[in-house]
């Protein structure tokens, strides 16, 4: 199946159908999640209404890590199987991943002020998320700074794979160190500790953010492939014949 | 829903910035895609 979609034309066919579907899922789930989260879910018994920030903070944080995991996976596929679209996919995922990470940090700070009394603390979870943001910046900088695409792809893959070590550190930081950030409430032994009235809009927003990521990656890949075709046309265009020498 | 005066600014700020950032990302990506497609179609017509 992978090799089938290494053909850009076949991938374009998939993206033309799957992209709009992902967009539709994003719009529907975001609308439901926002309305349910803001107006119908209960306030937290300790944090009050500031807990509603969870419905934008948690999806952003999950997608920050999921996007980077996607980049690392595509980089590995490009390294091992030389899949022609893997690098394109990884590069297309970088901008959305960076925005999700920045939003996770910002909304976390806004949630932390009324909850912890501080906009920022240098605890393990927050610091490792900040490091993830810098890794995203570095990844995008490599693509921009190295002029030859093949060389840029090689460096970007290496950076992506080395940077992946940060993902389990982020995930388990709240267990390994004394962190102000709360421990896992959803993916944990014994099941989620969040009430269904809060879990439903939360899952809706997570699905919305995921669908948004899928849609944006498809768009980014289609744009990159179109630019590649434009460059190939430019390289194939016949050169002008030289003007005839004038007799003196 | 009965927001308290203490937490409302924080909730509204978090949601407003999130929605604005995602909107900017979507608009940027869609424009980038449309620009590439227009350029490709223009080259196709010229050929």
From TrEMBL, chain A:
Gene Ontology BP terms: cytochrome complex assembly
Cellular component terms (Gene Ontology): plasma membrane
Protein topology in the membrane: Multi-pass membrane protein
A Gene Ontology molecular function term of the record: heme transmembrane transporter activity
Keywords: Cell inner membrane, Cell membrane, Cytochrome c-type biogenesis, Membrane, Transmembrane, Transmembrane helix, Transport
A Pfam family of this chain: Cytochrom_C_asm
Record localization: Cell inner membrane; Membrane
Broad class of where this protein is predominantly found: membrane
Membrane-spanning parts: 21-40, 60-81, 93-112, 124-146, 158-178, 198-219
Residue span, Cytochrome c assembly protein domain: 20-181
Function: Required for the export of heme to the periplasm for the biogenesis of c-type cytochromes.
Record-stated family: Belongs to the CcmC/CycZ/HelC family.
Protein name: Heme exporter protein C
Species per Swiss-Prot/TrEMBL record: Hyphococcus luteus
Biological classification of the source: Bacteria, Pseudomonadati, Pseudomonadota, Alphaproteobacteria, Parvularculales
UniProtKB/TrEMBL annotation, chain B:
GO BP field: cytochrome complex assembly; heme transport
GO cellular component: plasma membrane
Alphabetized InterPro entries for the sequence: Haem_export_protD_CcmD
TM ranges: 12-30
Pfam families for this protein: CcmD
Subcellular localization: Cell inner membrane
Role of this protein: Required for the export of heme to the periplasm for the biogenesis of c-type cytochromes.
Family per similarity comment: Belongs to the CcmD/CycX/HelD family.
Name of the protein described by the UniProt record: Heme exporter protein D
Source lineage: Bacteria, Pseudomonadati, Pseudomonadota, Alphaproteobacteria, Parvularculales
């Amino acid at each position: 199946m992978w090799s089938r979609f290494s053909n850009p034309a076949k991938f374009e066919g998939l993206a033309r159908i799957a992209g709009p579907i992902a967009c539709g899922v994003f719009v529907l789930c975001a609308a439901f999640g926002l309305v349910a989260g803001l107006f119908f879910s209960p306030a937290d018994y300790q944090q009050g209404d500031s807990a509603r920030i969870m419905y934008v903070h948690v999806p952003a944080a999950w997608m920050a890590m999921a996007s980077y995991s996607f980049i690392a996976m595509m980089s590995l596929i490009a390294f091992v199987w030389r899949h022609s679209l893997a690098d394109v996919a990884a590069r297309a995922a970088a901008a959305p991943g960076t925005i999700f990470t920045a939003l996770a940090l910002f909304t976390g700070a806004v949630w932390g002020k009324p909850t912890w009394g501080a906009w920022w603390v240098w605890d393990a979870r927050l610091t490792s998320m900040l490091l993830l943001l810098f890794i995203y910046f570095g990844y995008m900088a490599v693509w921009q700074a190295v002029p030859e695409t093949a060389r840029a792809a090689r460096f970007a893959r290496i950076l992506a794979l080395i940077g992946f070590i940060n993902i389990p550190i982020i995930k388990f930081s709240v267990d390994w160190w004394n962190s102000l950030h709360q421990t896992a409430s959803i993916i944990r032994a014994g099941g989620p500790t969040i009430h269904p009235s809060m879990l439903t809009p939360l899952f809706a927003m997570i699905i919305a953010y995921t669908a948004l990521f899928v849609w944006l990656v498809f768009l980014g890949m289609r744009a990159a492939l179109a630019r590649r075709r434009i460059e190939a046309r430019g390289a194939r265009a016949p050169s002008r014949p030289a003007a005839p020498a004038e007799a003196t | 829903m009965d927001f308290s005066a203490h937490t409302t600014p924080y909730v509204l700020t978090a949601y407003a910035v999130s929605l604005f950032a995602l909107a900017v990302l979507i608009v940027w990506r869609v424009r980038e895609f449309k620009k590439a497609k227009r350029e490709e179609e223009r080259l196709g017509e010229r050929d």
